[in-house]
Structure formats: C-alpha cells, structure tokens
Amino acid sequence: MSEGLLAMSASERERSHVMRALSKGLLRQREAAERLGLSVRQVKRLLRCWRADGDKGLVSRQRGRVSPQRLEASTRARIEELLRTKYPDFGPTLAAEKLSELERIDVSRETVRRLQNSLGLARSRRRRSARVHRPRERRPRFGELIQIDGSPHDWFEGRGPRCTLIVFIDDATSRLTALRFAPAETTKAYLSALRAQVLAHGVPLAFYSDRHGIFRVNAKEAASGDGYTEFGRVAERLRIELIQATTPQAKGRVERANQTLQDRLIKEMRLRGVSDIDAAQAFAEEFIELWNARFAKPPLSDADAHRPWTKGDDALDEALARREQRTLSKALTFSAGGQVYCVETSGPGMALRGARVTLLHFQDGAMRVDYRNRSLPYTHVKTNPGPDPAEDEKTLDVRMAQIVVAAAANAQAQPLCPQARG
Predict the structure, then answer these.
(1) How large is the average pLDDT for residues 55-65?
(2) For a disulfide at 185, which of 84, 150, 166, 266, Cβ 3.0-4.6 Å?
(3) What is the Cα–Cα distance from 380 to 386, expressed in whole angstroms?
C-alpha cells in the first residue's frame, strides 16, 4: 500500500478503490454511487479529482486547518479553570448555561462536555431501565391535575440542616406551581404550599399524590372519624379531588422533577450561598421562574382549569385552618395540643357549660374558638405533659438532628469524671 493511502481515512481509501474500479470499467457510475452512498453527480466529481490529482484529490482540503470555531487559548483556559473550581460537579448542559449567564462566556454544551472529559470531570450517566409500559399522556389543561410530593434531602450540602422540599408540578405543562421548604414532610408544609398555589394560580381540579398518611387514612382498624385526613378535609372544603398513586412510577412527572431539583436547585443555591430554610424559600420564587422558562411545555388546550380564588386571604386562611371539636367543662375549660384553655365570659356563663365548640388552628399558629357563628375569647391556663410524637421515615431526620444536638450540648455541659481527670 502506498504512503498516500496510509494517510487517508477509511472512507477515502474506499473511494480510492472505487475510482480505480471505475477507471478500469469494472463498475458503473450508478453502482459506484450506491456503494459509496453518494449521488451519481458526486461520483463524477470525485472521478475528475482523482484523475487530476490521484489519491490526493480524494483527501478533504479541510484536513489540518484550524477550525474558525476553535476557542482561543485564553478562553479555553478560563473555562477549564471555572470547570475545575466553580462547576466541578455540574453537567455539561447546566455548566454551559451558567457559563453564559454568570461568566458571560457563550460556549456550546458539546464543547463543555469535551472539556470536562479532558479534565476528568465527566460524570457517568445511569442507564435508564427499559420502559415496560406506555407513559400516560399529559392532561390537556393547565391546573387540571397537580402532582404533589415531598423530597427529604440534604438540600444545603452540609451548610445547613437537612430538610424537605414540597413540590407542586402541573401535569399538563410540567410547570412548577409551588415550592415550599420545611423541616419535615408534614400536613402544615403541604397546606402552606397549597396556599401559595391558590393565591398564585387559583384552585386546581385535582391533586395526584402518593399514599402517605398525610393524604389518606392508612390504619385499617380505624373505626371512628370521617375517613379523611386533615389535608383531605381542606381539599374537600376547596372542592379539590384527591387521587393517590399506587406506585412511584405512576406519578413520574413529580418524581423526575425531584431528581432534577436535587441537581439543579442545589447547585443554584450553592452559587448564591443559600444555607437555611428561610433564604431557600426566598429564592424559591425566582427559581420557579427559571424552571418554568427552561422546562415548561405548552398545554394541549389553552383553557385554564384553575378556579379563581376571589374571597380574599382571610377566607383562604380559614379554609386551610385545622378544625377540632371540644366540649366545654363546667369551668368552661377545654384542652388542645397539650394546653388547657378557659373561655372568658362577661356573665356566669352557665349556658356554655357542656357546649360543643369548634377550634380553628391557623397556619401562623393562632387559634380561634367558634360557637354558633361567633368567636369566643379565651385565655391559657396551663400545660399538660404529653407523649412524644411518632416519627416516620420522612420525619426521622429532623428528630435525629435534635437528638444529636442535645447530646452534644449535654456532653459539653457535664464535667469529666474523676477517673477521666487522672
């Protein structure tokens, strides 16, 4: 084989062999075109070049030239330094976005990926498992179905305590409608997110959740009560249907959003130095706009399924308030949350003995006592000791953090024993 052939690529060597066969009459031009995957006109052009310059005429003239799109050495060095120091665990897509947004360096995702590979920063991507069922089609209207879930995670990467992010995402558009940071996944956290959802967009038709005890009564032996959880009663007052999924895959929209949030939101908060729940919640509204601009899709229908909320903030707070029934004692006292209260009256209050009152617990911690369409004033009397609350896998992190802090404080407060001093 000649030196010219050794310098040629495999496709160029194949073209050389075909040109020789053409020149000897062993192939027709149409057969050569089919063999090379080219048009007959292109084959004629290659044959003219080969006859004029030999194998050299088949070699691309771009070989050895510097690409006009090549990065300048200083720009490349700057990008590499940023990838090593500021964006070491960013994916190529997010890194390219941040280089453009924060560093004013416009570079393609593919260029970033190649630089990350050369620096040894490329992250291995998990192989997606084979899809065994057809994905459910999106609902047609915005606000028709909102998928909701809580994501316990180390959102501040050790800069602050572990917490939970409550996520509301629209099924039709993949728009985030509410984000709420909370110490744990609780009914109060979901109601806070629901308040933001209603004030921002209106009342949706339905929620799609998992089978957590916040959304359904899971105790089979439960014989008393109305069969609703506190969140379920609020949803009924607002006329929102509650639908529970039987598997995480069924509510895949919010599950995939949680994975993306645990990547993008964490890095956005790191860049901004966010390290506590209050600062994270203040940034949440800005991040929702960033997310929706990047990931939201147009709905199949232009109609909005949300019902506008026109009754005002106070009426919404009352709808979200937790309700309890209590019977007043002969001394006009009642208990709630381990506390004992006494209803105040201007007279003897004989008519209120044994009366059934309704307690409204508001999101801000306030409580109201209602009796026959009027509110009763009350005072705090004493505190009763109560049992520790039961924990589940989604609230255990908060409880353990409290135990660890208390144990460390006790260890510092206690003096060393005599044997340890010696």
Answers:
(1) 78
(2) 150
(3) 17
Total of domains in the chain: 4
CA distances, 411 to each of 101, 110, 329, 404 (Å): 48, 53, 45, 11
Q: pLDDT tens digits for 217-252?
A: 876 665 555 678 999 999 999 999 999 988 777 788
d(CA 408, CA 402): 10
Instruction: Indicate if 291 and 354 belong to the same structural domain.
Output: no
Residue 307 lies in a domain: no
Q: Chain centroid to CA 192: how far?
A: 17
- If asked whether residues 253 and 339 sit together in one domain, one would say no
Does 173 fall in a domain?
yes
Q: Which of 50, 98, 63, 48 is nearest to 271 (CA)?
A: 98
pLDDT at position 2 is 46
Tokens representing 75 are 């720009």
Domain range enclosing 366? 321-383
- Cα of 162 vs its chain's centroid, Å: 16
Q: Are 157 and 397 in contact (CB under 8 A)?
A: no
Q: Are residues 162 and 285 in the same domain?
A: yes
pTM: 0.72
